[in-house]
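Hey L., structure's done. Input below.
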Amino acid sequence: MSPLAHRRFLKMNGIGNEIVVLDLRGTDIRVRPEEARAIARDPASRFDQLMVVHDGRITGVDADMKIYNTDGSESGACGNGTRCVAWALTRDPAMGDPARTTLTLRTKAGVLPVTIDGEWTFTVDMGAPKLAWQDIPLRDPFPDTRTIELQIGPIDDPILHSPAAVNMGNPHAIFFVDDVDAYDLARIGPLLENHPIFPERANISLAEIVSESRIRLRVWERGAGITRACGSAACAALVAAARKTLTGREAVVALPGGELTIRWRERDDHVLMTGPVALEHEGRFAPALFADRAESA
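Output:
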C-alpha cells in the first residue's frame, strides 16, 4: 500500500490556480511521480500544482517544499501554491501556528520569505529574476532576452513572435499581444512549451498591456497546461514589461482567476507577489487511488 494512503490533504486555490497541500513533515515519505499523477486524476484532489511540505533542512527555513505538476514533473517555484502553504502553516488547525507573521519556505529554485498580510492574503518574495540566456535557460546565446528570436506559424505571417524570456524559478516566455483572448492557447501552448529553444521546456504567457500599471495575462503552464492563474508567470510578465518600458516596476496582473499585485523592488531586484488564497475542502487519499499506478515516471 502506498504510504500516501489515508494521508490528509488540503484542496486550495490561489486566484483559481488549483493547489493541493500535503504535509509530510516528521516523515521520510517522498511522493513518486506516478503518485502525483494519480492524485491529479482524482476530481477530489485535482491540482495544477501539488505542494508537498517537508521538514526544513537548513537553518532558518521553516519548511522545504517539493512542487509537482499534473504530469508528475517537478516545478522550481509556484507563487500561488506558496501562498497556500503559508496559509496552511499559519491558519490550518492541524498544521498551523497562528502566532506566526512571517515564514521562510524553500523550493528547488531557492528560499522564499513570506509575509502574512491578513487572514487570506500573503506576500511572497519570489527572489530576483534570472535574465541571462544561460540561466533561463535557452538553447541559443541571445545577448538580450528582452526579445528572443522565436515564432510560430508561417515565416511571413507568424501567429506569435519575438517573446521576452525570464526565469522566475521556472523558465518563462512572454508574448506581448493586443488581445490575450485572440489566440488558441490550448493549441499553441504545448508547441511552444516543448520548442527546442527551451531545453527545460517553458511556461508560455500571452500578455496584454492595459496601462502602465495593469497587465492582462493568460498562461500555458509547463507540465500542467492552461491554468486560471500562475504566480511565477505574473512575476515574469511584470519583469519583462518593465524591461521593455511598457509598464513601471509595479502593476496589477489580471489573470482569468483573479488579480495579483506584483512589485519588482529596485534595492535588491527581488520580485514581490501579493494575493489571496482560498480553502476549498480537506480530505484523505483513498488507498484505491494508488492501486495499479506503477507506470514509469
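The helical segments are 33-41, 79-91, 185-193, 231-243. Residues 133-269 form a domain with the Diaminopimelate Epimerase; Chain A, domain 1 fold (CATH 3.10.310.10).

-- N.
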